[in-house]
Amino acid sequence: MSDDRPDAAHRRPDGVDDATVEALGKVSEALEAVEVARGHLYAFHRLSGTADLTLGEGVQGLRDAGHTELADRIQRDLVGRNVLEGRWTFQIMEEYDDGYYATFRDLERQAREELVGGRRHLYEAEMKEDRRTHGAAGHEARPE
Q: What is the pTM (predicted TM-score) of this model?
């Protein structure tokens, strides 16, 4: 590759200082943590739904085995129960996605647009430039 530099989308615009790139890097890092937290929240959603469906099968098994009173109690008190007051997990996900998550993503994007023309991962791109061995195979700035 003749131009072994990051592409324009991963180069700092003229006049942007180190402090700005570092601060945006921290904001981006925080968004990445929120993305992981969101993934865990979706895992909670999936596992809670699986647990409720499996519990329903267990209740039917108890009923089939003649334990009707216990099956009825579990069915009434637990199967389909809200995990938080008034909410199943899908409602938690929707509130999180539409509130905190959407606001976080929007403000992170606004900060990048206002300060560096929307460029993403400038801090990491500059870290890559500092850490890679220029000219060595497997250390290229970008794909050909």
A: 0.86
